[in-house]
Design goal:
Its EC number is 2.7.13.3. Keywords: Kinase, Phosphoprotein, Transferase. By secondary structure, the chain is α+β, with helices and mostly antiparallel strands. The protein has 5 domains: 116 residues, 2-Layer Sandwich (Beta-Lactamase), CATH 3.30.450.20; 118 residues, PAS domain (Beta-Lactamase, 2-Layer Sandwich), CATH 3.30.450.20; 89 residues, 2-Layer Sandwich (Beta-Lactamase); 89 residues, no CATH class; 152 residues, Histidine kinase-like ATPase, C-terminal domain (Heat Shock Protein 90, 2-Layer Sandwich). It is 44% helix and 22% strand. The chain has 18 helices and 22 strands. The strands form 5 sheets. The chain has a 5-stranded antiparallel β-sheet with strand order 2-1-5-4-3. It has a 5-stranded antiparallel β-sheet with strand order 7-6-10-9-8. Strands 12-11-15-14-13 form a 5-stranded antiparallel β-sheet, with helices on both faces. Helix 3 crosses helix 4, helix 15 packs across helix 17 and helix 17 packs antiparallel against helix 18.
Length: 659
């Protein structure tokens, strides 16, 4: 439907028409103009009759050309209201409201948002005849662009306001034209002051006068001349040629980092970052490093840090005092073993436990080191450095060697002491049969003298000779019995003494040998009321070191006589043994004495540990037992923890030693 044009006045003469062939009438020109317009146009007269609607308006409202319910504007408004053009609600009420505003031409300019989201800018102008002309411009894209721009500005403003930094923008005259609230806080000025667009020099002057900014170190002494101070700072920091960063302390105790970025038009962007926490953290880190360096230097051990290539990067004072100020290799680092350990740390990202090294120090003297290696890794877990810590154990190794020599000497002394006790036992035990033998020989000698006198006087009688024969027979039998007893005792003592002195390996019957050991201890046991009982089956043959085993039994029993029982106190010691499991002997020692206090149970096998040092105890008895059982006998000795009364030990050793 072409645009409809109202009747125009006809008082214009034909001569006034434009010259030329086939002139175009004014109505035709108006129709062409309306059809080519990008705006929608509607002309309504005073009776609300629609006189003109151009095609663009039909397109804007998505209505087919010419499809309008007659020329009545009110009917057209109701039609659009029912289509939802004016939003949700009662169409009649919406249409009535729209008509009322239209008649008042209020507002003369407004935006109409269609249901499809497009935005139309509507302008209404009253005509002199009482009607109105309404134009519709599609401003959807413009409004979208404006909204996007407004959103971007809003987001930018939010970003600036939520930045942890203060930021300002200065124009070519170095006047403040934009800022955020953090900048106001750091600069120490109010929003009202900044809105007056002060110059940079004005703010610097204000900061100096309020003490918020101090003059830098090395600045001349300007006294109270604020202008001179301001000029000094402006000359140095006002217009840098390129991006410039500096830090300054604030009068309120904060540290501010200022970054100045010159702009092509002569303006500047300045950012202010509160670095107080970073400065404090850096200072704390510096102090921590000083403390850590002091602690590391105070440690009496070699400490060095190497990179992955083996280059020494850090050493402590003990290291430098040992090897000199130059970065010398750590102990053993020149050896293939140390290099391999460094490579192992790098490849496995695991440390190397403490191990012993031997290497010369800076003066060439050999030292013993207890060394460990640890990795330092980055955030990704890759090894970046290797830390080596080496403790000087030269003195300890020397002391250990001296201690081993002393222990060997003391063990030998213990053996000699045992032999001395054995000799005393031999003398005591053999004394009785020898005394009986001497008595019998003396008595027999007297009888021989008597019978000889009777024979020489020829007064011997048959009864006298018979009495002599009886005495001689009894004396001979007594002498023979006691001599055999003494011989057996001497042989037994000789075997035990030989075993303890020689330390040779041989098979022995466990039950019989324990009995012989107890026989050597009989003199010591007779002075007490303690008895020793055995529960060991005969025929249990052990291939081992009987002398060492005898020393273990002797030490256990003597230790019990010294510590487990008071003088004159009765007691019982039980020694039992069985082969279990096959190939191993398990022997139990048990007494009913005082027992061992829980506080010292873990120390009883330590060398020189004793609770009766002032009473002649050396503290080596149980230590020697442990060394013999774990070393010579290749077994073990342990204190039973669950003994309710007295003391119980468990000895385990093989029936036959291998090798």
């Amino acid at each position: 439907m072409p645009a409809r044009i109202p009747d125009l006045p006809t008082n214009q003469s034909p001569a006034a028409a434009a010259p030329g062939p086939d002139p175009v009438s004014g109505d035709d020109l108006a129709v062409l103009a309306l059809e080519q317009m990008d705006q929608g146009v509607m002309l309504v007269d005073a009776d609300l009759r629609v006189r003109v609607i151009n095609p663009r308006l039909y397109e804007m409202f998505d209505v087919p050309m010419g499809y309008m319910p007659g020329d009545d504007y009110a009917r057209m408004v109701h039609y659009l209201a029912r289509r939802g053009e004016y939003g949700p609600g009662d169409p009649d009420l919406l249409a009535a409201g729209h008509l009322e505003r239209t008649l008042r031409a209020d507002p003369p300019l407004y935006e109409h948002r269609r249901p499809d989201g497009r935005v139309l800018e509507v302008r209404t102008r009253r005509t002199s005849a009482g009607g109105f002309v309404r134009t519709y411009s599609d401003v959807t894209e413009r409004r979208r662009a404006e909204d996007d721009l407004a959103t971007q500005r809003h987001m930018l403003r939010l970003t600036l306001e939520n930045m942890g930094q203060g930021i300002v923008l200065l124009d070519r005259d170095l006047r403040y034209i934009a800022w955020n609230r953090h900048a106001l806080d750091i600069l120490g000025v109010s929003e009202e002051v900044m809105c007056s667009k002060p110059a940079l020099s004005d703010i610097v002057h204000h900061q100096i006068s309020t003490g918020l900014v101090s003059m830098p170190a090395g600045a001349p002494d300007f006294g109270d001349d604020l202008d001179a101070k301001t000029k000094y700072l402006m000359d140095r920091l006002g217009r840098p040629e390129r991006e410039f960063v500096y830090a300054r302390p604030q009068g309120d105790g904060r540290f501010i980092e200022v970054r100045v970025v010159p702009l092509p038009d002569g303006g500047q962007v300045r950012t202010f970052t509160d670095i107080t926490d970073r400065v404090i953290a850096d200072e704390a880190l510096r102090q921590s490093r000083e403390i850590l360096t002091g602690v590391i230097d105070a440690i009496p051990a070699l400490i060095d840090v190497k990179d992955r290539d083996g280059t020494v990067r850090l050493t402590n004072r003990f290291y430098r005092e040992t090897y000199g100020p130059a970065a010398a290799p750590p102990p053993g680092s020149a050896t293939d073993r140390a290099t391999a350990l460094d490579r192992l740390v790098v490849d496995s990202s695991q440390g190397v436990p403490f191990h012993e090294d031997r290497a010369p120090d800076g003066e060439g003297a050999m030292r013993d080191w207890l060394t460990t290696k640890m990795p330092l890794t980055d955030e990704g877990g890759e090894v970046t450095h290797i830390v080596t810590v080496a403790l000087d154990i030269t003195a300890r190794k020397r002391a250990e060697a001296e201690l081993r020599d002393a222990q060997a000497s003391l063990i030998q002394a213990e053996k000699l002491s045992s032999l001395a006790q054995l000799v005393a036992g031999v003398a005591h035990e053999v004394n009785t049969p020898i005394g009986v033998t001497l008595t019998a020989i003396s008595h027999l000698g007297e009888e021989v003298g008597r019978i000889r006198a009777l024979f020489e006087e020829n007064r011997i009688r048959r009864s006298d000779f018979q009495d002599f024969l009886d005495v001689a027979w009894e004396s001979t039998r007594m002498i023979l019995s006691n001599v055999e007893r003494a011989t057996g005792l001497i042989q037994s003592f000789k075997q035990v003494a030989s075993d303890q002195a020689s330390g040779e390996r041989r098979p022995f019957d466990l039950a019989a040998y324990v009995d012989e050991v107890l026989l050597s201890l009989r003199p010591r046991l007779r002075r007490t009321r303690v008895t020793v009982d055995l529960d060991i089956p005969t025929g249990l043959i052990v291939d081992g070191y009987p002398g060492s085993f005898a020393q273990v039994l002797s030490n256990l029993i003597i230790n019990a006589l010294v510590h487990a029982y008071d003088e004159g106190e009765a007691g019982r010691i039980l020694l039992s043994a069985r082969e279990q499991p096959a190939g191993w002997i398990e022997m139990h020692y048990a007494d009913d004495g005082k027992g061992i206090p829980a506080s010292i149970r873990t120390r009883i096998f330590e060398p020189f540990f004793t609770t009766k040092r002032g009473m002649g105890a050396s503290g080596l008895g149980l230590s020697i037992c442990a060394n013999i059982m774990t070393g010579t006998m290749r077994g073990s000795i342990a204190l039973e923890e669950d003994s309710e009364k007295g003391t119980r030990f468990v000895l385990r050793f093989p029936v036959r030693l291998e090798g």
